[in-house]
Amino acid sequence: MFTGIVEEMGVVEQVQRGQHSAVLTIRAVKVLEGTRIGDSIAVNGICLTVTGLADGRFSADVMHETLNRSSLAKLKHGVHVNLERAMPADGRFGGHIVAGHVDGVGKILNIRSDDTAVWYTIAAEPPVLRYIVEKGSVTIDGISLTVAEVSADRFAVSIIPHTQEQTVLKERTKGDLVNLETDIIGKYVEKLLYPAVPSQHTSRITKEFLAENGF
Question: How far apart are CA 2 and CA 24, in angstroms?
């Protein structure tokens, strides 16, 4: 589990592409402290398993499914990535519950300054937007952020300059793709309420149900 608090920006040193997979080699410092092969590191919000360690770098395999559902397929030599180690049991919970399992990608529609804040407006598909709520949490490229606005086909976040400067958001421009992970709690609640077909359901909470249960 992660919290969406980026520890550092790493640099992609090598991308070895297979037919349907890839191996990333990333140069880093802080996230390598105490890290062993088999540990988890979130790379732009995607939980990857460390498969190799060398001086100042680590390697991780990226599966076909991950390449299809994220922006990792577009990584190339020299670009920066957000990095976060899995949260230790005695660590500080600074963001929100982040699984590192990306729901999809969004597209940056606009970036604007508002006094000390920076607004990012991001387009997303309906299956992702259904779990994004105003004042709720969303993970963008591994960064835990608070949703400021939501509409039918997009949402917006307002961030402080420190967040922009310390993450890859400072390098993002209009039209760029970003990895999105919605709040996992909402997905579990929906699954428990509508276990059969979560995307096509009617409420089971009726007047008769309430009456039968003492309401």
Answer: 20
Assess whether pLDDT exceeds 90 at residue 193. no
Nearest to 7 by CA among 121, 135, 95, 66: 95
Strands 22-27 and 57-62: antiparallel
In b/e form, how buried is each residue of 151-167, taking b as 16+ CB within 10 angstroms?
eeebbbbbbeeebbebb
Is residue 74 left, alpha or beta, with left meaning phi > 0 and alpha meaning psi from -120 to 50?
A: alpha
Q: How far apart are CA 123 and CA 118, in angstroms?
A: 17
Q: In the chain, pLDDT over 90 holds for what percent of residues?
A: 73
**Which H/E stretch holds residue 201?**
none
Give buried/exposed letters for 37-74 (b at 16+ CB in 10 A, else e).
eebbbbbbbbbbebeeeeeebbbbbbeeebbebbbbee
Q: Which of these, 155, 111, 109, lies nearest to 129 by C-alpha position?
A: 155
Q: What is the pLDDT of residue 205?
A: 64
User: pLDDT digits over 110-139, tens only?
Assistant: 999 998 899 999 999 999 999 999 999 999
Judged on CB neighbours under 10 Å (0-12, 13-18, 19+), 210 is exposed
**Rounded distance, CA 13 to CA 81, Å?**
11
Alpha-helical (H) ranges within 24-82 are 64-69
DSSP 70: S
